[in-house]
Write a structure and sequence with these properties.
The complex is a heterodimer of chains A (522) and B (172). Chain A is an alpha/beta fold. Helices cover 22% and strands 21% of the residues of chain A. Helix content of chain B is 65%, strand content 0%. The chains are: A alpha/beta (522), B mainly alpha (172).
Chain lengths: 522, 172
């Protein structure tokens, strides 16, 4: 179940259960002495006095602790000017946080080397079939035909296992295995209970950052990582875009990425990316409560004209409702499943490729797709598909996606159960189901898998939904109201599979949930 | 076959002279090596008082056992390896404390590659591990270091600087 009670993570991740300012008191601005003076942050100070601020952790700027120098160690004067422009823009959202990339010049170089050696050099990341699309393409770019998947090198796995067994407390007293299959599987519960037991003894703690998982598979877990691992998204996103003939220009005179949310309250901030040569990176809440004037949202976003939008199906559906005149080069959706119909609608609306990303906070981005199955990203991530007992399923069978990855220096993962389910065929994840499948009962007593419900509901283009079957077999389904089909269409689709079960369809606002869980039953 | 109880009894009977400070340690070690069939001591550097007493007690334990040149050689090697143990335990306790007597007896037998009477090699190794002062000290030190590290990680994860985090670029 999604944790409804927690505010989201300052950096733009999933909800965090730990309010940095539990008392809701006014923020201590002395913690960041070189922060710009009040005029740099619109709506200060009456903004701080907002009487009914709903979540203590969202008290504006209360979750900040660094200086700007620490936030952007590699910042250039041009990037600083770009940041100032975004911070002081007259139509800017009500920023309530500030957040950098925390990347040193060395880290930026390592990421660029990573892009060259691991991402670009991988056969899966074949040369783009089409040239880079212009900033405002008239029609959606045609996805390149994927190159033949290659078998990835696995010579890094056993050295990683040996390193983890030598340095990670959880494994220290266990006999060193001779193969990966002998390594016990690691569950989210293991991380939840004692995350510190997973941090290597020789890991540098000075630059540790934390994110909380969404809690969509149970209680939220705290995930430590390095800023460099966090920024691994950038070369990976570039790789995906490269498959579609899209390149990110970056540079300190533009905004490259806007990460959109649609929640009653959410952190909003302006940042710049050293990896993208000072390009702006924004986290923006499209909810009206995040802006001073209703027209500011469109004015600000059109003025930013970002190269990329990222978000989730709900926030991107809200974005699609805006009368934007600018067009991104691509839109990337994550956090929850993006149905093909919704993807096509978004692609038509924005006139660009729309990409469905799959990843987890603990391991980063893992796979992506446009119109086919999820393709694994060319990372040093080993994927296994396991049954409930931890044994590999037969090739092509659906099981739990389990990953081994040493790219986060603060949280190396050996055989980590993601809580998501799919089959592995070559380098693609097929029959992807996200959470564990749920079995529903048809009116005549037969059982059907939730994946079959996905198949009948997908053509309707529902942005997000929650379907529950009670012990009496009655079904209730809540559908996100934005762009929703008629209840009659939903009823017909569900009954085409489940038969004449009692059924209630309710259009509602699901945007308050980090990841609405699609299926459940008594 | 040599039994552990026989050796611990001998340690319990250690003459007080072997714990005295005015004994020529080099002479006692040399005499013991010769009695075991080895060559006399050629060189003996000055050692800490407690280590010297522990070496004297060890020589008392080894003296009178069945001679063999390799035993002499192994005793010589053992005497050079007792420094860590002497740093942790007062030498007199190896004559008065039953666990310490058993520890020294088993250390000598292991040095001599002799399995105690009535035990298998695995049992002997396991029993030595239960009375091994150096091992226990190391485990405790490692445990303390591990807890300190875990606390440092917990603090780092709860730090406001970690909570501020860094900008994320996608939603997962």
């Amino acid at each position: 179940m999604t944790d409804h009670s927690t505010p989201e993570q300052p950096g733009g991740g999933s909800p965090t259960p730990h309010a940095t300012t539990a008392t809701g008191a006014a923020p201590d601005r002395t913690a960041a002495p070189d922060q710009p003076a009040a005029p740099d942050y619109p709506a200060t100070p009456d903004y701080l006095d907002m009487p009914d601020y709903p979540v203590a952790a969202y008290v504006p700027m209360a979750a900040t602790a660094l200086t700007d120098q620490e936030r952007w160690p590699a910042q250039t004067p041009e990037a600083e000017a770009n940041l100032a422009r975004l911070r002081t823009h007259p139509k800017a959202p009500l920023y309530n946080h500030t957040c950098g990339d925390r990347l040193t010049a060395q880290a930026v170089n390592r990421l660029r080397d990573y892009a060259k050696s691991t991402v670009d050099a991988n056969p899966i990341g074949a040369t783009p079939a089409t040239p880079a699309t212009p900033a405002t393409p008239a029609t959606p770019a045609t996805p390149a035909t994927p190159a033949t998947p290659a078998t990835p090198a696995t010579d890094w796995i056993m050295p990683l296992v040996e390193r983890v067994y030598a340095t990670v407390p959880r494994y220290r007293r266990l006999p060193v295995p001779s193969s990966l299959s002998e390594v016990p599987v690691l569950t989210r519960h293991d991380l939840l209970v004692r995350a510190e037991q997973q941090v290597p003894d020789d890991a540098d703690l000075s630059d540790l950052i934390v994110y909380r998982t969404s809690g969509s598979r149970g209680r939220a877990a705290t995930v430590p990582m390095s800023p460099e691992f966090c920024a691994l998204d950038l070369p990976l996103i570039e790789h995906v875009l490269g498959q579609l003939g899209v390149t990110v220009a970056g540079g300190p005179s533009r905004v490259s990425l806007v990460n959109v949310y649609q929640q009653p309250v959410a952190y909003q901030f302006a940042s710049v990316s050293s990896y993208w040569d000072g390009a702006g990176v924004l986290k923006v809440n499209l909810h009206p409560s995040g802006w001073r004037s209703p027209g500011d949202t469109v004015g600000f976003l059109d003025d930013c004209a970002p190269e990329l939008y990222t978000g989730n199906p709900i926030s991107l559906a809200a974005l699609a409702e805006l009368d934007l005149t600018t067009r991104p080069k691509a839109v990337l959706s994550g956090a929850m499943a993006l149905d093909p119909t919704t993807r096509e609608r978004l692609a038509a609306r924005f006139g660009c490729p729309v990409i469905d990303l799959y990843g987890i906070t603990e391991a980063g981005l893992l796979a992506w797709r446009t119109d086919g199955p999820h393709r694994l990203l060319p990372r040093r991530v080993h994927v296994e598909i396991l049954d409930p007992a931890g044994q590999p399923v037969a090739p092509g069978d659906v099981g739990e996606i389990t990953v081994t990855c040493g790219e986060n220096p603060l949280l190396p993962l050996l055989r980590y159960r993601t809580g998501d389910f799919a089959a592995l065929e070559g380098r693609t994840l097929t029959h992807f189901q996200g959470r564990e499948p749920v079995v529903f009962t048809v009116a005549d007593g037969r059982a059907v898998n939730s994946i079959e419900l996905t198949h009948v509901l997908s053509p309707l283009g529902i942005v997000a939904y929650r379907l529950h079957q009670g012990a009496d077999n009655a079904v209730s389904i809540e559908i996100h109201h934005v762009g929703a089909p008629t209840p009659g269409a939903v009823t017909s689709a569900v009954r085409s599979l489940l038969g004449a079960v009692p059924l209630i369809v309710t259009p509602t606002d699901l945007s308050q949930e980090a990841k609405p869980q699609r299926y459940s039953r008594d | 076959m040599t039994s552990v109880p026989a050796l611990t009894r001998r340690l319990a009977d250690t003459p007080p002279d072997f714990l005295a400070d005015d004994v020529s340690v080099a002479a006692v070690v040399s005499d013991t090596l010769v009695a075991l069939g080895g060559p006399p001591l050629a060189h003996w550097p000055e050692r800490d008082a407690n280590l010297s007493r522990l070496i004297l007690v060890t020589c008392w334990l080894a003296h009178g056992q069945d001679p063999a040149p390799d035993r002499a050689e192994a005793l010589h090697a053992l005497c050079t390896e007792l420094g860590t143990l002497a740093d942790l335990v007062d030498a007199a306790r190896f004559t008065t404390d039953p666990d310490r007597r058993e520890e020294l007896a088993r250390l000598l037998l292991r040095a001599w590659r002799t399995t105690p009477a009535g035990e298998t090699p695995a049992q002997a190794e396991d029993r030595l591990s239960t009375v091994d002062s150096v091992r226990r000290h190391r485990v405790l030190a490692e445990s303390r270091a591990a807890e300190q590290r875990a606390e440092a990680v917990r603090q780092a994860m709860a730090d406001r600087r970690a909570e501020e985090a860094a900008a994320r670029y996608s939603q997962v």
